[in-house]
Write a structure and sequence with these properties.
By secondary structure, the chain is of the alpha/beta class. It folds into two domains: 107 residues, 3-Layer(aba) Sandwich (Rossmann fold), CATH 3.40.50.10350; 215 residues, Alpha-Beta Complex (Glycerate kinase, domain 2), CATH 3.90.1510.10. Helix content is 38%, strand content 20%. A six-stranded mixed sheet has the order 3-4-5-6-9-10, sandwiched between helices. A hairpin with a 5-residue loop joins strand 3 and strand 4. The termini are close together.
Length: 360
């Protein structure tokens, strides 16, 4: 039989590529004559580049060195060019929250992402927006591409959310190096400002206080007006514009379009096209519950399989759902959540064995 292994990462324990490999190892120990295909998945967050590289034999890596990290320290960021010529960039590699020594909602910047876009050498790019450290509306990105953002005295504003608070005018006359085709990969439908906006939804996890969130929310609303006045209009209420602290909006002002991360990654990896010819698809994530079926990657894979009338199984660190989907819980296999998390690879191998034994 032909089995596709298409897990997400098990966040904090094992990435999607290694999770797929472990599941395959377990399955092959029981049924080594089956056609086992590794197709790890992502939703536009961290790990998207590695997933695409694992599923794209003809893709090529490059690196942009010394770009501005989220706290101003220089970092190196990778870029993956697919066989089609489309370049894929991961915001988390240049402007990610994991790079911050300490969270700072008012100084974290996205300038590095703009520098990677400028230097990647492709006119067609996809940007994975997960894992942002900042709430700057994409101000840093636009400045790296030649836009000037000025305060009430006509001076350049500082980086990050503080710059957004100080912004009073935008000069886009120096804008240059913008790819003609920019696609944004995101797993959120957040808008730019308001109750469902970038600051209010994601600000707390980036270190913003209640007072910071209120100020940043108002600044994001003004930011939309300033960009429109400078000839860079975008709809701040379009779902996804609030992604990555408003980077989605900043890039939409440059003509970008928003795509659902899970859906688009499944296309780029070839999973969407491969499902109909499979006898079984095995997906997985850290915790599987009812929310998994409402917009998350595993829910997308389950829906694709349902549409194609292909059996699907979900392997998860923990299972908390009464939905009618075949599941394997690593917590149950290991005896406790702590034991499962301490050695996820071992228990994913066991899960692969269990699934293979069930079809004998």
């Amino acid at each position: 039989m032909r089995v596709l292994f298409a897990p997400d990462s098990f966040k904090g324990t094992i990435d999607a590529v290694d999770a797929a490999a472990a599941l395959i190892e377990g399955w092959a120990a029981v049924r080594n004559g089956d056609d086992l295909v590794s197709m790890p998945q992502a939703d536009g967050g961290e790990g998207t580049l590695d997933v695409l590289a694992a599923c794209s034999a003809c893709s090529t890596w490059s690196s942009v060195s010394g770009v501005c990290g989220p706290d101003g320290r220089p970092v190196d960021a990778r870029c993956l060019t697919l066989e089609s010529g489309r370049a894929v960039i991961e915001l988390a590699e240049s402007s990610g929250i994991a790079m911050m020594e300490s969270l700072n909602a008012l100084t974290a910047t996205t300038r590095g992402l703009g520098e990677v876009i400028r230097e990647c050498g492709s006119d067609r790019i996809s940007v994975a927006l997960g894992g942002s450290a900042s709430t700057d509306g994409g101000l840093g990105v636009l400045r790296a591409l030649g836009v000037r953002v000025l305060d009430e005295s006509g001076q350049d504003v500082p980086e990050g959310g503080a710059g957004l608070l100080a912004a009073r005018s935008v000069d886009a006359s120096g804008l240059a190096g913008v790819p003609s085709d920019i696609e944004l990969l995101t797993d959120t439908r957040a808008v730019l400002f308001g109750p469902d906006g970038a600051a209010q939804v994601f600000g707390p996890q980036k270190g913003a206080s209640a007072a910071d969130i209120e100020m940043l929310d108002g600044a994001l609303q003004r930011w939309a007006e300033l960009l429109a006045d400078a000839g860079l209009p975008a709809d701040p209420f379009m779902p996804g514009t609030g992604a990555a602290g408003g980077v989605g909006f900043g890039l939409c002002a440059l003509g970008a379009r928003v795509s659902g991360g899970a859906e688009r990654v499944s296309e780029l990896t070839g999973l969407s096209a491969a499902v109909s010819a499979a006898d079984l698809v095995v997906t997985g994530e850290g915790k599987f519950d009812r929310t998994s079926l409402t917009g998350k990657l595993v829910g997308h894979v389950v829906q694709m399989c349902s549409d194609a009338s292909v059996p699907v199984a979900v392997v998860a660190g923990a299972v908390d759902s009464d939905v009618e989907v075949r599941t394997v819980s690593l917590t149950e296999l290991a005896g406790s959540g702590e034991t499962a998390m301490a050695d996820p690879r071992r228990w994913l191998i066991d899960a692969g064995r269990r699934l293979a034994n069930e079809v004998r």
